[in-house]
Amino acid sequence: MSQSKTRVLIPAEKIQARIKELGAQIAADYPEGNLCLLGILKGAFVFLSDLARAIDLPVRIDFIGTSSYGKGTTSSGEVKLTKDLDTTIEGADVLVVEDIVDSGVTLSYLIHVLEQRRPRSIRIVALLDKPDRRRTPVKVDYVGFQIPDEFVVGYGLDYAEIYRNLPDVCVLQQD
Ligand code: PRP
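# PRP complex -> structure
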């Protein structure tokens, strides 16, 4: 890909407004606190930082690293754990924070790994959901936006590690 253009799919203001709604809903659903936000690196780092500030509760934050795409635009189907959690989640209410659910392979692998660590509960929040691409069923409890099957970048999402810092979610147009 020598030259690439981007087209805004979801502008920053719309993302921020939806995150405020999600944060309020999540805070209402966990009245006891004890919530651990678990961001999936790298893509979720931007969403997690905004979502955490929209949840009016004391929360713990940890990260786990996975990679399945390499440098391509489609999932390799194999998930690699690139970084483990720093803290224990035993007995905690875990909210897995993901930027996008595509095939569902990453999350179904990760949920399996996390369940073995005996948290009290696990739920998933994803900013973006591409239901048309699902290969493995995953129950996503909170969804920011359902999007069509287009390759998106920005707001944490990359193509070959570029574009993560765009404030909008954009479609990458290949020339
Ligand atoms: C992306 C994205 C999700 C996953 C979703 O991560 O951040 O974690 O793919 O795809 P799936 O539902 O088909 O598994 P990627 O592996 O590209 O790593 P990154 O977050 O470091 O960019």
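# post-check
The pocket of PRP is lined by residues 40-43, 66-69, 75, 98-106, 158 (CB under 6 Å).
Residues 12-29 form the longest helix (18 residues).
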